[in-house]
Amino acid sequence: MLNPRFFYTLALWLLLPYIFLRLLWRARKQPEYLHHIGERFGFYSAQSDKPIIWLHTVSVGETRAAQSLVERLRTTYPDHRILLTHTTPTGRAASEQLYGDDVLRAYLPYDYPFAVNRFLRHFRPRLGILMETEIWFNLIHACDENNVPLLLLNARLSEKSARGYARFARLTRDALGELAAVAAQTADDAARLSSLGAKNVAVTGNLKFDIAPPPALLDLGRRWRERFGAARKVFLAASTRDGEEALLLDALQQVHIPGLLLVIVPRHPQRFAEVAALLERRGIAFRRRSELGQDGVIAPEIGVVLGDSMGEMFAYYAAADLAFVGGSLVPCGGQNLIEACAAGAPVLIGPHTYNFADATRLAVEAGAAIQVQDGGELAAELQRLLDNTDALHEMQRRCAGFVEANRGATARSLQIVASLAKN
């Protein structure tokens, strides 16, 4: 019987024309998708004269989540060079912002055997780390054949995703079985991965809890707050997705807070202009973050600040009284609410949180977040909390306890890295 990986690879070859069309399509809004195309097929110019520890962090979320780990790896293995690979230009930009030239960075090649083998021959990593749910069948097999220990770290797998992988049981079992180890976020994630064929599975927790808000960004947020107006209440809509801004603007029509300032930060930079157009159509006076100078305050008639900047999310949280974390009023699975709590911003979050189900559950149980089912409930909770200073301050206090109680994933993950590095 033919190996199912043969049919998987055949399907990839049939999809090759679509891959180029998809890059062109995405480049309409993000021209960076047409940069470094050779890297996506295994052709690299970056070099290192030191042994390499390689981490694959797909986009912005994974790149930020790995920050505490990258810092500890650089300290623990000073004679090695860290290579970060990405899939999206925004992930690559986040890496540049966080680390500059202190790490190597490149795009991970598409999962064609020739491309992944060229990648491994060029960089010759001593150890590989895939973040969260990056299961690439040819890449994992090539690492196993080339004796590159590969760790699936901060691993999470929803019930829906597990059912999808179970449809290709042998292909998934073979790939997960070739991983050197799996470090899962929760016991449920570990159980689902084990049932699909993963071995050497441990529960290490979520790396995102170990991220410390940069003091410079917290200071920036406090300066913004002064400019927003000390007497104004500030409601942040963070990491919003397509269609969500309209739902939020509708909901806020039910809220009666004098001088309320809404700060909207879309999840993807290519949507900044789209959200600006929505505000213009609705006749809402707004200012862009990119238009704010160093001095002066936001005029009282300005109802919205559009956060059209990257890498400043902690500052936005620090400037807010209360935050909504996006991707959750629409069925996108939600975004990371841990950063908001780490910056002391209580959270409202919608019903669609399957990407961060465990973190959302823990935050709600800790009293750091409130889950709402629709825009009407969001408006009611926003009104209640901004009218009740004591309740809001209690949520802020509980944010710190929620984050502190769940720290430690970095140290536990490093123990697994150390065991693989010795082999």
Short description:
By secondary structure, the chain is α/β, with parallel strands linked by helices. Helices cover 46% and strands 15% of the residues.
Molecular structure report:
The chain has 423 residues and is α/β, with parallel strands linked by helices. The chain folds into two domains: 217 residues, 3-Deoxy-D-manno-octulosonic-acid transferase, N-terminal domain (Rossmann fold, 3-Layer(aba) Sandwich); 191 residues, 3-Layer(aba) Sandwich (Rossmann fold), CATH 3.40.50.2000. The protein contains 19 helices and 14 strands. The strands form two sheets. Strands 3-2-1-4-5-6-7 form a seven-stranded parallel beta sheet, sandwiched between helices. A seven-stranded parallel beta sheet has the order 10-11-9-8-12-13-14. Strand 12, helix 15 and strand 13 form a beta-alpha-beta unit. Helix 6 crosses helix 7, helix 7 packs parallel to helix 9 and helix 12 crosses helix 17. The longest helix has 17 residues. It is globular and about 70 Å long. The two termini are 33 Å apart.
How many structurally independent domains?
Answer: 2
Give the DSSP E fraction (strand runs of 2 or more residues). 5-15%
Helix coverage percent: 40-55%
> What's the overall average pLDDT, rounded?
94
What is the 3D form? globular
Computed CA radius of gyration, to the nearest angstrom = 22 Å
Helical run tally: 19
CATH topology label of the largest domain: Rossmann fold
- The CATH architecture of the largest domain can be named as 3-Layer(aba) Sandwich
At the fourth CATH level, what is the homologous superfamily of the largest domain? 3-Deoxy-D-manno-octulosonic-acid transferase, N-terminal domain
What is the CATH first-level class name of the largest domain?
Alpha Beta
Secondary-structure content class:
alpha/beta
Largest beta-sheet details: 7 strands, parallel
